[in-house]
Amino acid sequence: MTDFHTALGKNNANYQPLTPIDFLIRSAQVYPEQTAIIYDDLTHPALTQTWRETYTRCRQLADGLRQLGIDKNDTVAVMLPNTPAMVECAFGVPMSGAVLCTLNTRMDINALSFCLQHAEAKVLILDSEFADYVDLLTETFPQLMIIQATDAAIETDDFGQMSYEALVGSATDLDNWELPQDEWDAIALNYTSGTTGKPKGVVYHHRGATLNALSNILDWDMPKHPIYLWTLPLFHCNGWCFPWSIAERAGVNVCLRKIDADTILRLIAKYGVTHYCAAPVVHSIIASGDQALKDAISHPVKGWVAGAPPSETMLSNMEAMGFHITHVYGLTEVYGPVTVCAEHPDWAELSTAERAQKKSRQGMVSHLMAGFEVFQQGTSNPVASDGEEVGELALRGNLVMKGYLKNRKATEAAFADGWFRTGDLGVKQPDGYIKIMDRLKDVIISGGENISSIEVENTLYALPAVQSCAVVAAPDDKWGEVPVAFIELHQGAQLTRDEVKAHCRAHLAGFKVPKHIVFATIPKTSTGKVQKFELRQAAKSIDYAAETGA
């Protein structure tokens, strides 16, 4: 047997830790004058920045943080909308040796305080939009250094130790930054939504961030120099790792402070946006924009959708605009998207309804993920590839988190058998594609029968008047639980409860038809996910006897 190990070890010449920081360095070297960032709210002069300038500012940010005393593995938290500062932080913070903690911009003060304390954050870069938090944060965390980030879109009094621009401008040594010594070093800390208990801190490493950024490119066949619109919150799984993907492709980050259909359509037309990502509700918002603005877009646009399966209505609306939508799936614990509904050429010949059926699946594992499986619950036995047997989705590979910060028990439970169990229930179809049926906690058990809330929701989305919907369980004396449908209508649309129930009876088994219909605004997270925990609480307290047919 040949010895392929002796005197063939790792050394600096043949092994360097993987890190997405290298993508920034290369783009600045190869395409220094190419545009890296555009920030245009259409009311103020647009900011544009090249890759050379971005690389310089990221090095300045790293040195500025080090001058504040930031060292290896310190936590630097940021609470920012999708502004240029947020893109720069994706590189400048880890270049300082620190770990980047991007905070949900819709956190209440209690959740924000928990995350800052749990992460032991030393610096908080805070957008002026959240100035109301400053007094309480200063009182609660007297040692926390608060940096004010702002732009022309927001006017407020100065707060904190200094401004973000002052921090960047304080740099004196552009070489005072570092690459990771080990690719297993932490690069980012992301908090789960905490819908049941306290949020959990998910730790990412440089290796996973690098590989997921590359996997995004491969899964999307993303060419050089894409023009990417930030409709997806950059705080969510570090923007699904796309700040690093766009740097590798030397693309353009088109920043966006808030979601607005007409602004999005104008930016797509003005800058020739080629790619964007969003939850289904954001795609629907874009499709509801001004028709003249939609007509002004004459080039191909590609979008990724995740968070819920794309409905036939949404796909049809996007296709009518010339947008090509691909369904992906992932979680905070796996850096964002790690499966893709890879399309086949013959799908183009299908009807919209048939194509939506195909695209609603979570699909196959991403290029750089090792495994995607559906196991019989509580076992390591795969379900049959028959599209019928339901099991729990599991993932494994280099795109899985390091673990949960300061939570050994939860980490060990998550990796108990060498797989990360997602808590999502699904089936494996004969062609190997996996389709989610529901969240484990969202399955409704009525009279001993399991009801998939996703199946009922997809049926409701076929009604043109429905903009958003969610189906949850409500306690019932006879059946134990019954499905309740919360429905948000498009502006100006009309729909009655009787019409909803008649539609459901025509497409669902009788026990799956919602027992109660509630017309209401659907609560969502800033990433567009429906907050079902709030609806479950509402479903317990609604006076159903007061329902009318209107």
From TrEMBL:
Among InterPro entries, the record links this protein to: AMP-bd_C, AMP-bd_C_sf, AMP-binding_CS, AMP-dep_synth/lig_dom, ANL_N_sf
Entries under Gene3D superfamilies matching the protein: 3.30.300.30, N-terminal domain of ligase-like
Q: Which domain of life is it from?
A: Bacteria
User: Residue limits of the AMP-dependent synthetase/ligase domain?
Assistant: 26-405
A Pfam family of this chain? AMP-binding
UniProt KW keywords? Fatty acid metabolism, Ligase, Lipid metabolism
- Domain AMP-binding enzyme C-terminal, first and last residues per copy: 455-529
The question of whether Nucleotide-binding is a record keyword is answered with: no
**Family indicated by similarity:** Belongs to the ATP-dependent AMP-binding enzyme family.
The name of this protein is Acyl-CoA synthetase
